[in-house]
Write a structure and sequence with these properties.
Length: 398
Amino acid sequence: MKRRIFVKNTGIIAGGLMLGNTAGAFAKSADRIINIGIIGCGDRGKGIMRVIDQFPQKFKVVAICDVLDMRLAEAQKLAKGNNYSQYKNHKQLLADEQVHAVVIATPLNMHYPIALDALKADKHLYLEKTMTFNVQQALDLVKLAKAHPNQVVQVGHQYRYSPLYYKVKEMIAKGYLGKISQVDCRWDRNANWRRSVPDPSLERQINWRMYKEYSGGLVAELLSHQIDFINWAFDTHPSEFMATGGIDVFKDGRETFDNVQVVLRYGEQNMVGNFGATCGNSRDGYLFKIKGTKGTVSLLTDQGVFYPEKAAAEKTLVDGVTGATKITWNKDGGTSILPEPTKDGTWYALSDFYEKIGSGQLPDSNVYTGAKTAICVHLANQALYNNEIVRWKNEYNV
């Protein structure tokens, strides 16, 4: 079944919430609070809990789960006087009937098996990026989601919800950048990415990002956001994957590379995407540039500037970027895309998660788009670690 047909047939149940056994056995209501269970209470899980606290009329965290006692204790401190139900086995949390929806923020290798159990338990699902650990899991999760149409599955590529990135997508579609041929992305830091370990036996559980058994490394943890945005903005996927890198900075026993450069060829768009990250320098930090014959967009996570090419700058632009009648260029030759910085992307994503649970509509970052980006990450890592050119296959289209 084609994706658009599937969405049309299963997306909305007239006038009410799509129901599962426990996913939301209640009618849509403006003041309905959705009870959330958090599976994975590391840095990202606790960060999402803090954002959820900004929606007291929409969400309430009622249960937490982690295999490590120290993580449960850290998460419990965020309860503000209300004790969470605590579990060390995610299946026990999924059996908790007070939980309507779950957030999965575990190591990457556990995303698929827990998502599988969550759908079978009739829970709505906010699944952190990258959606799955490998290609087959991505394809299988799409099939599973189709078999459980009553559950909303949202994937944590939050740029798809940011007003800034929405605006850039619109600019691309309307041709303000002209013919785009290059995308340049970086996400750099000058740190070893290592967490402190209270007991050596916990090394691989705490520092899982450094080990291939659990992690997709820098490509999955950082660059997947920018790769996903390009997929979304151009309604595309790469045709060829080339990459190089190594453990060039921190010789500390890690397995995933600390210095990577990925080059993606988008054949249908006649476009090249450059995606790089290092743990050995923080000068650029986050950098995202989209370059066309008429201009360049330069983005941070919460703000952006449009720089016209010289010929375009000599012309008056009307209602092109900010909605003003005439744009005044700053001394650097650029103008802000939005008048002020946006909120954290997770805020917009969770706000939409609530709305989609109510309407039953497909989220912008969903199981289909999540699968596409997860496949991209896996193929990029295949090129990176095997030193080969990898090509997209038709069987990856979902």
